[in-house]
Amino acid sequence: MRGLAFSTPIFRQLVEFQSYTYTYILGCEKTRQAVIIDPVDKTADRDIQLLKDFDLNLVYGLNTHVHADHITGTHLLRKAFPSMKSVLSRASGGKADRLVDDGEDVQFGEQKLEVRATPGHTNGCVTYVWHELRRAFTGDSLLVRACGRTDFQEGNAAALIFIGHNYNGILQTSVLEEKNLNPRLTKTEEKFLETMENLHLAHPKQLDEAVPANMKDGEVENSS
Amino acid sequence: MRGLAFSTPIFRQLVEFQSYTYTYILGCEKTRQAVIIDPVDKTADRDIQLLKDFDLNLVYGLNTHVHADHITGTHLLRKAFPSMKSVLSRASGGKADRLVDDGEDVQFGEQKLEVRATPGHTNGCVTYVWHELRRAFTGDSLLVRACGRTDFQEGNAAALIFIGHNYNGILQTSVLEEKNLNPRLTKTEEKFLETMENLHLAHPKQLDEAVPANMKDGEVENSS
Ligand SMILES: [Fe+2]
Ligand SMILES: [Fe+2]
């Protein structure tokens, strides 16, 4: 869509229907630089097409953490956008083109995301905060009415929270809702730890394959 | 969340993962009146819970058309919100508490939706336009890069379009994109008609059950 001008930053939320992972495309409408948050390998072609539709150049492929339920799409996106740099937190212990720490900014054109360490679900979990649009991308650190360890105590109540998963088809939440309605955020620390230790959830189906792959941009080990 | 004030209109997009139907909740933050667009019977409990979480009173349950792929949730939502009125277009031939025509407004508190006739997919298809937030809810009249009969020629290019379905997990589009990238909107009328007559798509699985039920708020015929 070269020549057709958007007047505001570009933003799209996307769903991958097998792992129910939510992916986000954010673009600077002036410089056409863009980032993608939590891309999935299975939907890489869709994401590449959308970026091209928007005439965007992908500069960063960010993951909120080393996912256990799907393989990241960063290695596939890099083939279409060779200058794309993958991003993971240093605390994750994974490999990426750029390792980030709490407080760092990730710039795309005139827009930027602030990195906030939000460990709990994994040691390397980060939340990316887009101050300009008052949106936060929490990955699995905070889900709708679930999970829970979060650093939003100082957050603005109206800020929209874009989560990494939701199995009921709820696509967004807000600080206001989670502070009041999230059963895991209204417990004492002791009760919270007890709850989290007794969830007894089954391991994600793709755990054994996904975690090692996601430690290095989604490249699957070649067994031959 | 009584007593907790939102400072802007409330808006949420939701997904029903079996029919990939997209449902929308829109609320007036001042009067707490709300509407729901294209609710699904299977997710009625989720929607009722969300409306209660937001301390919203549902005044209208709107359908963009008589759906063939799922049963509307209006009859279930009315049990939780007895003053809710269902809305369908008069041109649909269906029954509803309120039948609307092109150009009419549907008011919820200080907010309103304008009804626009967008026939094609069905004779009774309408698009609801939320001018205040520059958003349009097209149901199946316009899908992302697909389907096509639409009345948006006068639309603002940046306006966001919220569609009724997308099987690739793309949740929104814009007038700008569809005018330029939708293969069905860049054809001549003759070619468009030829394409649409030769799609040879299978009937939706729930067609025989859904259409008669959706002609009257989703009440399924009792065969006894
Ligand atoms: Fe995770
Ligand atoms: Fe339809």
From TrEMBL, chains A, B:
Domain Metallo-beta-lactamase: residue ranges: 20-165
Name of the protein described by the UniProt record: Persulfide dioxygenase ETHE1, mitochondrial
Coiled coil regions, renumbered to chain: none
Enzyme class: oxidoreductase
An annotated Gene Ontology molecular function: metal ion binding
Record keyword Transmembrane present: no
Family of this protein: Belongs to the metallo-beta-lactamase superfamily. Glyoxalase II family.
Predominant localisation class: mitochondrion
Keyword annotations: Acetylation, Dioxygenase, Iron, Metal-binding, Mitochondrion, Oxidoreductase, Transit peptide
Domain of life assignment: Eukaryota
